[in-house]
Amino acid sequence: MLLLVIIYLAFISLGLPDAVLGSSWPVISKDLNTSLEFAGVVSIVITSGTVISSLLATKVIDRFGTGKVVAVSVVMTAIALLGFSFSNYVLALILLAIPLGLGAGAVDAALNNFVALHYQAKHMNYLHSFWGVGATAGPLVMATYLTLEGGWRYGYATLAALQFVLVVALFATLPLWKKSTFTTHTEDDEQESLPLLSNRQALKIEGVKKQLILFGCYCSLEAGTGLWAASYLTVIKGVSAVDAAFWTAVYYLGITVGRFICGVLASRVKEEHLIRFGVVTILVGVLVLLVPVSTTINQMALLLIGLGCAPIYPNTIHLTPKRFGKQASQAVIGLSMATAYTGVTLVPPMIGLLMGNVSFALFPYLLVVMSVLMIVMSERLVRQHQAQMKFAKQQG
User: Fold this and answer.
1) pLDDT range class, residue 194, cuts 50, 70, 90
2) pLDDT in tens, 253-265
3) Domains of the chain by range and CATH?
4) What is the pLDDT of residues 103-117, one digit of tens each?
5) Model confidence at 190: pLDDT above 80
6) Would you say 110 and 57 are in contact if contact means Cβ atoms under 8 Å apart?
7) Are 298 and 233 in contact (CB under 8 A)?
8) pLDDT over 60 at 7, yes or no
9) Are 68 and 174 in contact (CB under 8 A)?
């Protein structure tokens, strides 16, 4: 239980810096005499580091162990955040964005696989809801300081201090990681003694590419909705900017609350059913966003989409060892993280470019395409796993 608390705290810390750059950049850009658009460059560097560390996670974790990798990665993010608070040039921010991204990606891939292997589905759902807690708390911490002269520096320093406190806890509890791994092994589990598969080997497993498509579509839809829903409501539906911003916040609240609810339901409802409910709810929400009804109903569609998003990521991750085996799970999860972050980096700007050159009315149609792809890939993964289980039962 103590280790589980540490893991939850680590995921809160993972979410803390995620939304802070955007909320603080208008002030940072003035202090450092740079453009508002330059935040995109810093964001891309962070995401690139996250993708790289996700792809390298299997080798690094296999060599050093999950506990050490997580502890060192949080040290990297803490140092990067502290460096942000002292930066006087945008070049320094770009350089610091490298360890920030590398650390975040390693923590994400390592903890997702560790919880998938050693804890129940409800804990995976709670884990990702705690990320939402961090992503919500980060901007609130920053907002507290932005009213002060140079307040963004105090905001980043505070976030760094919180990370360093976690670092102390992580290094103090390193023995618990080994103990947890040992106690969850079964005597007849032969896979534990076999080497982990590489990324290349994992890609050859049937169904892995389907999971990568599912992750790419999901994370692109989640990020794209968060980025462009307010603009769509304002431009196409005539909603005020204040109301549009409020309902975007409701969308993220739906994801966070939905994951807590999924954690409660996970002991009674199969992960496959939670995922199916999620993707269907997203599609329904997107269709409600699209149809010509009252703006109040259109706005409420964002809550539906948020609730639908809630179960997909954590439960798909938790099913990974069952679907592809424990040898492959770290590689598959690392590849999934890399695909997710790539989608988050590339697809939302592409959506913006397309809407800017054609029409903002395209927005829900693009979400429909991604929703349908998610449903198709998810159902194919379910059928494949059922066929594998049936075959194994016949052989056994």
Assistant:
1) low
2) 888 899 999 999 9
3) 2-181 (1.20.1250.20), 199-391 (1.20.1250.20)
4) 999 998 889 889 988
5) no
6) yes
7) yes
8) yes
9) yes
Task: Give which of 336, 135, 359 is closest to 253, Cα–Cα.
Answer: 135
What's the pLDDT tens digit per position in 138-161?
A: 888 888 888 787 789 999 999 999
**Contact by Cβ (8 Å): 246, 370:** no
Both structure tokens of 99: 């360890």
**In three state form, how does the secondary structure of the chain look?**
CHHHHHHHHHHHHHHCCCCHHHHHHHHHHHHCCCCHHHHHHHHHHHHHHHHHHHHHHHHHHHHHCHHHHHHHHHHHHHHHHHHHHHCCCHHHHHHHHHHHHHHHHHHHHHHHHHHHHHCCHHHHHHHHHHHHHHHHHHHHHHHHHHCCCCHHHHHHHHHHHHHHHHHHHHHHCHHHHHHHHHHHCCCCCHHHHCCCCCHHHHHCCCCHHHHHHHHHHHHHHHHHHHHHHHHHHHHCCCCCHHHHHHHHHHHHHHHHHHHHHHHHHCCCCCHHHHHHHHHHHHHHHHHHHHCCCCHHHHHHHHHHHHHHHCCHHHHHHHHHHHHHCHHHHHHHHHHHHHHHHHHHHHHHHHHHHHHHHCCHHHHHHHHHHHHHHHHHHHHHHHHHHHHHHHHHHHHC
Model confidence band, residue 28 (pLDDT cutoffs 50, 70, 90): confident
pLDDT digits (tens, 9 = 90+) for 267-307: 899 999 999 999 999 999 999 998 888 888 999 999 999 99
Q: Long-range CB contacts (< 8 A, 24+ apart) of 354-358?
A: 355/228, 355/231
State the residue for tokens 């990665």: 73
**Under 8 Å between Cβ of 15 and 134:** yes
Query: And the tokens for 119?
Result: 């804890």
- 279, with CB counted inside 10 A (0-12, 13-18, 19+), is buried
